[in-house]
Amino acid sequence: MTATEILSQLKKLGRDSYKKVLLNHGVSEPVFGVKIEEMKKIQNRVKKDYQLALELYDTGVYDAMYLAGLIADDAQMTKKDLQHWVANSGTAALAEYTVAWVAAESNHGWELAHKWIDSPKEAVATAGWSTLAGLAAIKDDAELDLAELKRLLQRVQKTIHDAPNRVRYVMNNFVISVGCYVRALTELALQTAAKIGPVSVDLGNTACKVPSAAEYIRKVEKRGTIGKKRKTVKC
Known about the structure:
Layout: H1 3-13, H2 16-24, H3 36-46, H4 50-57, H5 62-71, H6 79-87, H7 92-104, H8 109-116, H9 122-138, H10 146-159, H11 165-181, H12 186-196, H13 213-223
């Protein structure tokens, strides 16, 4: 399948009702309004395709860019590819999810995430924190720099309330991810969450709420799944 053929399919699969939902969540035009379940069907047919993913992302159509993240061959993604993706994400959904997911599962996630979180550009910084959250969720603790994660928790504690809007949201998610997936840092994440307190984020014309990091981690703790890693961050 070519990018042109897939783009044609996506256009036919678009629904105005779902497009409205996406627009309310801050997605920018052009967007067709294709539900993720429909994208998954295409993903199952394509599997992984490095070049096709690059071509779909460069269409600039939100649905195609999201699908690009699902079919990307993460191991082949270069730092240049990922820098291009984050620079052209254009919307919080792509920066925080698509770009961050692929970066976390690439060979360059840790390095790029540290670079991105220092960016003055909100979308780039959110991609960085989301990538770090993804790495905590999928990497064995032995592969993680726990000392650096501790430092990052301290950074969140000190700076979250002064950070840009969406950066506050993903910083909060980073605390949750470390607390849930890195057993050795669960208590520190809970202490960090307690010191941070409620996090205020403008989530636009949606019913979404900012989760309480402490409550979320405690629920996972009660379920007995602290430290259970995910196979992938993509969904």
